[in-house]
Write a structure and sequence with these properties.
By secondary structure, the protein is an alpha+beta fold. It is 28% helix and 31% strand. The chain folds into two domains: 209 residues, no CATH class; 76 residues, Immunoglobulin-like (Sandwich). The protein has a five-stranded antiparallel β-sheet with strand order 1-9-8-5-6. Helix 1 runs antiparallel to helix 2. The protein is rod-shaped, with a radius of gyration of 51 Å.
Length: 380
């Protein structure tokens, strides 16, 4: 439920004084004809909550009543208030003139009546009465014309009703919808009365301050940071002035300060919470912290392998120019070219025909050694 404060009813219709003029002088009353000419509609002077009431005169008989709200911008409302002040000052001045002319007319009328009692009214008094009546009428017309023009100028600022936006009320109850707005609100309450085959309208402008339910929320639901990085979360705080509290579920992973700035400490996951001081509203963001650098990827020289290396597949050998080359059958992904046994330090095991080569080499070595032994034996 919205709370309404500082209710200020602004009556747009200009209140005109009833000028009572004796004898055959008519009353001066100014009102736009389309705005409730029979005064059947009574709008509230003030609005204190989300509901209000519109009254209808019993003289309207059977009727159907509608209403609607139209919001005004600050600039529209301020312009209307400025014009109202200007118009009121001028109307007050014109009313003062009219009252003076009316008093002068009344004095001449009294003199005219006194002379009439004696049976003779002087020509001077007759002329004075004509002049006073003309002056009073001119002042009344000037007042009336200015008031009507002022009201029409104000109506140019005030938002008109929208024909498709009418809501019917059977008992005069009006439900006000502020559309989630908070702070200073200005709006027009329009009424439409259909009675006795006629449709008439009335309206008032109101200014009020609306305070909605106070809430806090975080713009991000998740956040990813590397160790050492920082980011300030987006805070939305509406409908009040309470302080907010930031918390981290694990400050060894991610810290958060009083402004919502999150700093990544170490790898892991933490939940950042923001809440109102009274705890009535809160929101969270899950923060994932990763290491400062990703997994290594470099040459074998930069990251040498550990343990035994197994080369899958069968090996084939060929001897060229006195050196033996071993070629892996199925090479690991990314391995290209041949593998030279001379560069492998003899540690690559040989299979199949490789044993024959080894035996031949060994035989020659043994035979050579024996011959060398015999040579030394018989020559020394």
């Amino acid at each position: 439920m919205k709370k309404i404060s500082k209710k200020i009813g602004v009556v747009v219709a200009l209140i005109l004084a009833i000028l009572m003029i004796i004898s055959n002088i008519a009353l001066a009353k100014i009102k736009l004809e389309e705005l409730d000419p029979k005064s059947w509609i009574t709008l509230p002077m003030f609005i204190r909550n989300d509901t209000t009431n519109i009254s209808v005169s019993p003289n309207a008989g059977t009727y159907t009543l509608y209403y609607q709200m139209q919001f005004m911008t600050d600039s529209q409302f301020n312009a209307m208030e400025t014009k109202q002040r200007t118009f009121k000052e001028e109307l007050d001045r014109k009313e003062e003139i009219l009252n003076t002319k009316t008093a002068e007319l009344n004095t001449v009328i009294n003199q005219y009546n006194e002379e009439g009692k004696n049976g003779t009214v002087s020509e001077a008094t007759k002329q004075a009465l004509d002049n006073a009546r003309a002056a009073q009428k001119a002042a009344a017309d000037d007042y009336a014309n200015y008031a009507k023009a002022a009201q029409e100028e104000l109506m140019e600022i005030i938002p008109d009703f929208v024909e498709t936006a009418w809501k019917q009320t059977t008992d005069g109850t009006v439900e006000l919808d502020y559309g989630g707005k908070t702070g200073s609100i200005h709006f027009v309450l329009w009424a439409k009365l259909v009675a006795s085959g006629e449709t008439t309208y009335d309206m008032n402008v109101y200014s009020t301050s609306v305070t909605g339910s106070e809430t806090v929320s975080i713009g991000e639901t998740t956040l990813s940071l590397k160790v050492g990085e920082s980011k300030t979360l987006t805070l939305s705080h509406t409908g009040g002035t309470q302080g907010v509290i930031w918390e981290s579920s694990d400050e060894t992973i991610a810290e958060v300060n009083e402004n919502g700035k999150v700093t990544a400490i170490r790898e892991g996951q933490a939940v950042i919470t923001v809440k109102l001081a009274d705890g009535s509203s809160r929101d969270t963001c899950t923060v994932t912290v990763t290491s400062e650098t990703g997994g290594g990827s470099g040459s074998q020289e930069e990251n040498p392998p550990k343990g035994n290396i197994t080369i899958p597949g069968a090996n084939t050998n060929k001897t060229t120019g006195g050196s033996t080359t071993n070629t892996a059958g199925n090479k690991p992904t990314g391995v290209t070219g041949n593998m030279d046994n001379t560069k492998a330090g003899g540690k690559i095991p040989q299979t199949g025909s490789n044993y024959t080569i080894i035996l031949i080499v060994a035989g020659f070595a043994i035979a050579g050694g024996f011959c060398y032994y015999q040579y030394r034996k018989y020559n020394f």
